[in-house]
Amino acid sequence: MNRRSKVIDVASAADLVSDGDLVAIGGIHAHAAPMPIIRELARAGRRNLRLLPNVSAGLPVEVLIAAGTVAEVYTAYVGLEDFGLAPAFRAAAESSTIVVHDVDEPFTIYGLKAASANLPFMPLPRGHEATGTRSLSPELFRTVVDPYSGNEHVAIPAMRPDVGIVHAPRCDRFGNVFFDGPIYQDDLILRASRTAIVVTDEIVPDDYAASGRHKEVTVPSFMVSAVVALPFAAHPTSSAGHYGRDERMLEDYVRSPEQWMARYVSEPQDHHQYLERVGVERLVGTLRVDHQPRADRSQA
Amino acid sequence: MTETCTTSELMAVTLARGLRNEEWGACGANSQIPMAAFQLARLMHAPDLNWLSGGGGAINSAAPLVKSTADPVTLDSAEHSFRLEDIVDFELGGWRKAPTVGIFGGMQVDRHGNVNMVGIGRDYPKLRVRGPGTVGLVFAAYFTRTMIFVQRHDARIFVDEVDHVSAPGRTAARREFCDPHSDGPQLVVTPLAVLDFGDDDTLRLKSVHPGHTPDEVRERTGFDLPSSTPGEVPLTPSPTDEELTMLRERVDPGGALRRLRLD
């Protein structure tokens, strides 16, 4: 009997997400966002999603909010880094169309860490009390007494996503994941989520991981439920070793979010139509594969 | 100094001089100026300073000054990479062998050095301007010390009291809850001036950058700003020839700082 491949198409992967699910999204800023599934969820019209995005999320959260799929966001940061505030998040939050839970980096990371270690919560070292964040989300940041010292500590509940979706540059078809660049919190997302999906640019051969590369496999196959393999699987965000972020796409988004949503999210029916709309010139322009001799590179 | 430097270069040099050898430093997103400061300090007086480039986890990166500090290219010239779990463990005070220093900015900074990134407006959650969120500003409660930098200086940023405390400044809450070795903000570097703190833990005007006046700085600050020293407010010391050469030839040959837009 042959080992089972976990490779499925993007529509089937989106079907793993149900209305009302708590969905974790990997990457950070405009890097390693699992955009093909995000666009598919937006087109499919999921409702009432509760997002636990990466600790500095931008475009994937924008697309899901702009498409009306989101009810709540656990927000450590939603913005567009050097491109400024996130317009759809801002509008939805200011008009109370979505519920924003103000949290922080320790909340998202230790919430996932507690879930992946099967712990009910994680206490924090004292100091968090000096911020005002707890007063914004008192139901999330509760306190617990250390049974050893008797001291009170702020606690963070285990956050177990129904579905976690991350991007990795490479993966094998069984689900062994190679994060060739930064791992961000994506190892925790795959460990903590009930259903864990990886979107990848490249499927490596079946015998690749077990050929002396066990240290490169950041997350093992049995923590991954499904794999979606597509060219430019993170575009317009970056993929380590493959391509950089597409800054013109981000500029275009900020300039006219509604037109951008129509052109790149609602109208293309699949990933290939999306790539056609982006165009060869722009896609090739993001590649970080170096075709120049090294001596010329410093001039670039 | 024979050549004129830009304001962003002056800010980077000022922050670099504030860094100490054998400290461990970190910056957040969109932080070309702090990134330059860490790299310059390592080349000048602090070869044993270690630093983290934003959420990408690159330790001691010699990467070009990319706009996005979490860009995977920062790992190409890094000694190590932290996962976010490592970053949170470390920045909450775990594993520490040396003092730590964070450099960050925000939407509002007040006279005590509190920083707000949640949004503008006290009536939560009905904010007038919804901000991006607190991100890693909580770590200001755990770093040994911090420095604040902003790329705009006006009375909308420098307010008497922040609407929400994302990073605690020099406050009673810090004294009550934080480790006694966590001293809070030490310096604020802006496109106009350098601010420090007096004995009463409120901000003062330490120096103004060449081309600006104390009156201009005070007009564009939303609270009273006494001088740090008696007499005339000094000019921010310019980079030395060696600093500027190092900055332009080793840290930023691509000229990212010279192109950076400041308001």
From TrEMBL, chain A:
GO: which molecular function terms? transferase activity
Any keyword Transmembrane? no
What InterPro entries does the record point to? CoA_trans_fam_I, NagB/RpiA_transferase-like
Question: Is Transferase set as a keyword in this record?
Answer: yes
In this record, what's one Pfam family?
CoA_trans
Q: Which UniProt keywords apply?
A: Transferase
**Name this polypeptide is given:** CoA transferase subunit A
Q: Which organism is it from?
A: Nocardioides furvisabuli
From TrEMBL, chain B:
Superkingdom, natural source: Bacteria
Gene3D superfamilies registered for this protein in UniProt: Glutaconate Coenzyme A-transferase (3.40.1080.10)
Record's compositionally biased regions (Basic and acidic residues): 212-222
- Region (Disordered) residue ranges read 207-241
Question: What InterPro entries does the record tag this protein with?
Answer: CoA_trans_fam_I, NagB/RpiA_transferase-like
Coiled-coil intervals in this record?
none
Q: Which family does it belong to?
A: Belongs to the 3-oxoacid CoA-transferase subunit B family.
Q: Under what name is this protein listed?
A: Glutaconate CoA-transferase subunit B
**What's the source species for this entry?**
Nocardioides furvisabuli
